[in-house]
Write a structure and sequence with these properties.
This protein is an alpha/beta fold and 321 residues long. It is built from ten helices and 13 strands. The protein has a domain at 2-171 and 217-245 and 285-300: NAD(P)-binding Rossmann-like Domain (Rossmann fold, 3-Layer(aba) Sandwich), CATH 3.40.50.720. Strand 4 (69-72), helix 3 (84-105) and strand 5 (109-114) form a beta-alpha-beta unit. The active site is at residues 141, 178.
Length: 321
């Protein structure tokens, strides 16, 4: 059996689909299934068992001998949430329990970290584990992810294989339930469809023109392909960046979305909300040499390819992955 936590969420539900495509059908999905707005993400998938996240460790104590791999992707991901206790409970403490169980039962583990750990990028975006304790995340979400990375690296007891993945700006099908935390592409599509226009955040940094803020956008299909690679690879444990390796502007994202929709370009700008303005990242770009060095050689979707696939094959027809 393969366990996927946070399974009804965006990336994890896409991973379940990708595992099914690779003929892995004994999938145990773990989540808070009382959140009905996510339930469509798992419809039609081959799943062996549904386990509530609060009962997961009791379930694992009884079934660990049958578990082949754990993907721990469940987390609170709201970057505008500032209640540290929420992140300590769901991101830090829960992840420690997953780690310790994997050590006790010798189960390999891949878990979700985040590019939010890099903060404003003062130390760059290299997944060098030596700099992880020096990073300065900009919000409690990023802090919780970095705190766990630091904790994991400090442990003497480790799963025989483990990998933490610093997800950059992931976009793609199955993210509808994330609401304000969904990708800019998702929001752009809906704005253009409903209003025939798109509003981007104005730049409040003199080094960047409006719309020229840059992010490393990575398509979710690349993310789940890397997860499968690591499940089969099972060596070279450590913390890895997972982005496309190429920063692109929000203007490029917008133009590609208009193009994929066959719509006339109509863009204006609005002020970045004050509650996130001071902690706004103007540039992120993953150094992907570490993952490439262990043998992952599949090319990543370009922004053009990813936006076109997402818009035309999922958003327009209203399909899930």
């Amino acid at each position: 059996m393969i366990i996927v936590t946070g399974a009804a969420g965006f990336i994890a539900s896409c991973l379940v689909s990708r595992l099914n495509q690779a003929n892995f059908n004994d999938i145990v999905v773990v989540d808070n299934f009382s959140i009905s707005k996510k339930e469509r993400n798992l419809q039609g998938k081959k799943i062996k068992e549904f386990v509530d996240r609060d009962g997961f460790f009791e379930w694992l104590d009884e079934n660990y001998e049958e578990v082949e791999f754990i993907f721990h992707l469940g987390a609170r991901t709201d970057t505008t949430e500032f209640n540290k206790d929420v992140f300590d409970l769901l991101n830090l403490d829960y992840s420690k329990k997953v780690w310790n169980a994997c050590c006790e039962y010798q189960i390999p583990l891949v878990y979700a970290s985040s590019a939010a750990t890099y903060g404003a990028g003062a130390l760059g975006y290299d997944d060098d584990e030596a700099i992880i304790p020096l990073l300065k995340p900009l919000n409690p979400y990023g802090e919780s992810k970095n705190d766990f990375d630091i904790w994991a690296l400090e442990q003497t007891a480790k799963p025989f294989f483990w990998a933490g993945l610093k997800f950059f700006n992931v976009y793609g099908p199955n993210e509808y339930h994330k609401e304000r935390m969904a990708s800019v592409i998702y929001h752009a599509y809906n704005q253009i469809r409903e209003k025939g226009r798109l509003a981007l955040f104005r730049s409040h940094n003199p080094n960047y023109a409006d719309g020229e803020q840059m992010r490393d956008f990575i398509y979710v299909k690349d993310v789940v392909d890397v997860c499968l690679f690591l499940m089969h690879h099972r060596k070279n444990s450590g913390i890895y960046n997972l982005g496309s390796g190429k920063a692109r502007t929000f203007m490029s994202l917008a133009l590609n979305t208009f193009d994929a929709m066959g719509a006339e370009v109509n863009i204006d700008f609005m002020d970045t909300p004050e509650n996130i303005r001071d902690n706004y990242q103007y540039f992120t770009e993953a150094n992907m040499s570490k993952l490439r060095s262990i043998g992952y050689d599949k090319p990543f979707y370009t922004l053009e390819e990813g936006v076109q696939d997402y818009v035309q094959n999922y958003l327009v027809p209203g399909k899930f992955y």
